[in-house]
Amino acid sequence: MDTKRDMQQKNPWHRKLIVILTILFIVGIIVIVSTAIIQNKPLPQKMKYGIVLDAGSSHTSLYIYKWPAEKENDTGVVQQHHACNVKGPGISSYSAKTDNAGKSLSECMDLAKTSIPDVRHSETPVYLGATAGMRLLREQDDMASENVLTSVANTLRSYPFKYEGARIITGQEEGAYGWITVNYLQGNFQKNSRFFGPFQDTQASVTLGALDLGGASTQITFVPQEEIESEENSLHFRLYGKDYNVYTHSFLCYGKDQALNLTVAINLKIDEPDNVQENPCFHVGYSKTISLKNLYKSPCTAKQKKNLRMDSVVLNGTGNASKCRENVLKIFNFSDCTSSSCSFNGIYQPHIYGSFGAFSAYYFVMQFLNLTTHHETSLAKVKEKMEYFCSTPWASVKQRFPTVKEKYLSEYCFSGNYIITLLENGYSFTEDNWNTITFIKKIGNSDAGWTLGYMLNLTNMIPAEAPSSPPLPYGGYVAIMVIFSLLLLALCTIGYIFFGKPACNSQKHII
Ligand SMILES: Nc1ccn([C@@H]2O[C@H](COP(=O)(O)OP(=O)(O)OP(=O)(O)O)[C@@H](O)[C@H]2O)c(=O)n1
Ligand SMILES: [Ca+2]
Fold it and tell me: CA-CA distance, 122 to 168, in Å (whole number)?
């Protein structure tokens, strides 16, 4: 060993050779490390999946969401992968044949099995949330509602997914998760808002109010300008490092199907000589027979029960939009407000503030009526269009829309007028802020509704604090690594040239 060292010191060519080898070695290391870093970029993303069933009063929908596994806590990464509409009515309609409630979900659940890769099945959570239809059934018949839930739970458990529960969610949750969904999809929780929805003018940290109209209940949720007076209507969230004080209220019985029944019930005339009555919310030429037993069956109409001798009433349409709104207005109570401001039925509501996304039945109805382009359509124009549509005879309406389901088609006149009344008289939207409402079905590829927010919350995918991002972007990191390695190398070389020996001790060790 000693002789070898002596030789190296005596013969400068050996030293030069060693240095060249050292340089080559270091360059080799740099190339290897840089390549490793570059090559180490994430492999094709592993996707995770989640299933939520929205068991609404009128129907059930199944949604499958997906997101890249390693980006779980980033906002805006969860997307709708697939949606399936369950055939038949909502699960609350199976109160007399509860076994069939579970069976009705099989087709969509089978589809979920094929659309999610087999290897992911066992880790895919499945949740069912039931809304106002089941809330009403629980009020009416607690046992029946329990049996329906057991039936759907048994079906969901029979699939290879991770069953996470089937329950009736509260109206407050329904409002809150709807608000979270639209703001998550809109990118409002991100530091730099990513705009891919229809709300291009929304600034980061400004949120979008959520208006949800179902068959049996309706929700309004938004961040008001003033402080929220009532604790039961207020939600406090800390999401991605920001605090939100959100107002929400869910009106049971004010979904469009229950509101129609309520409007009919309140406007029934007991002193009418026969059982034929006029109804301005239906088209001229349209006639509908209503069983009074059915009408008063729901807890929403039970209080309106009148002592009528007949079992059923025939409603004949007169097609008059303004008269229809007069009738609808009677289902709202505008007295008895004990707060500084109220919507209706004594419920506190702060003043309307900001922009709103109106989805579900708001969208179905306004889309059909061609009234979704609010930026051009004033409230007065909407009323004018309703006047025209309602006064169109039923035969012409049917002829114009032969493919639309008759139940939906016959109710659009009522529904349009109900939506106007609810928004204008109920929530106090005015001609001035009417254009802050956008009627939406989807944001990006995902449906607006409460299901996404529900899943994000239950899978802990919306952190309170913003996830810390690496101090340097990936490219910058690689560049710095390479530049510093080269600098080090240059220093060593210069050291050697000027001082006759390598400047870096470490080189000796490397060799
Ligand atoms: N193309 C369509 C689809 C649905 N509807 C109506 O929209 C309402 C259902 O809205 P939805 O949001 O699906 O209500 P649910 O979720 O079933 O009810 P809830 O949220 O109150 O439980 C029903 O009155 C249905 O008749 C409509 O008018 N046109
Ligand atoms: Ca709903």
Answer: 24
pLDDT tens track, the chain, 511 positions = 444 555 445 567 777 777 777 777 777 677 667 766 665 655 567 999 999 999 999 999 999 999 999 888 787 899 999 999 999 999 999 999 999 999 999 999 999 999 999 999 999 999 999 999 999 999 999 999 999 999 999 999 999 999 999 999 999 999 999 999 999 999 999 765 444 455 544 444 699 999 999 999 999 999 999 999 999 999 999 999 999 999 999 999 999 999 999 999 999 987 777 789 999 999 999 999 999 999 999 999 999 998 777 899 999 999 999 999 999 999 999 999 999 999 999 999 999 999 999 999 999 999 999 999 765 689 999 999 999 999 999 999 999 999 999 999 999 999 999 999 999 999 999 999 999 999 999 999 999 999 999 999 999 998 888 876 655 666 666 677 677 667 777 776 776 776 665 545 544 333 3
Ligand-binding annotation for 219, yes or no, is yes
Delineate the domains of the chain, giving CATH numbers in brackets: 2-31+471-510 (no CATH), 50-168 (3.30.420.40)
- Residue 20 CA to ligand 1 centre (angstroms): 78
Which residues are bridge partners to 313 per DSSP?
290
215 annotated binding-site participant = yes
Question: Cβ distance 231 to 349 under 8 Å?
Answer: no
Instruction: Tell me how far the alpha carbon of residue 491 lies from the centroid of ligand 2, in angstroms.
Output: 69
**Helix/strand/coil (H, E, C) string of 424-454?**
HHHCCCCCCCHHHEEECCEECCEECCCHHHH
Q: 135 phi and psi, to 5 degrees?
A: -65, -40
Q: How far apart are CA 79 and CA 207, in angstroms?
A: 19
Residues 6+ apart with CB under 8 A from 84: 61, 62, 107, 108, 111, 112
Mutate to test the pocket of ligand 1, among 57, 58, 168, 360 (most ligand atoms within 8 A of CB): 58
Best of 364, 410, 417, 419 to mutate for ligand 1, by most ligand atoms within 8 A of CB? 364
**ipTM confidence score:** 0.99
User: Which residues are near ligand 1 (CB < 6 Å)?
Assistant: 56-59, 90, 131-133, 214-217, 255-257, 360-361, 364-365, 408
Contacts of 296 (CB under 8 A, 6+ apart): 265, 302, 304, 305
Q: Whose CA is nearest to atom 9 of ligand 1?
A: 215
Mark whether 431 is an active-site residue.
no
**Ligand 2 mean position to 248 CA, how many Å?**
15
Nearest CA to ligand 1 atom 16: 56
Ligand nearest to the CA of 257: 1
351 C-alpha to center of ligand 1: Å? 27
